[in-house]
Amino acid sequence: MVSEASRARILARILLYMGEEQAQHQEAPEPSGEDCEICGSEMYGLHCKLVCPNCGYRRDCSDP
Hints:
about 30% helix; 4 strands; alpha+beta; 2 helices; four-stranded antiparallel sheet
């Protein structure tokens, strides 16, 4: 389980990747249950996008 402090850091990093303007209109990311293909960290999901807070890898639903 991820601690609240870790979750806050993860959220901050994901919002940086998204850009502030876009992030203001989004809900909070949730753990996706999937691991990053690059570094193995837990990925977080926002709608159709998955983001790794560790290495920055991104994937969306249209990716194979």
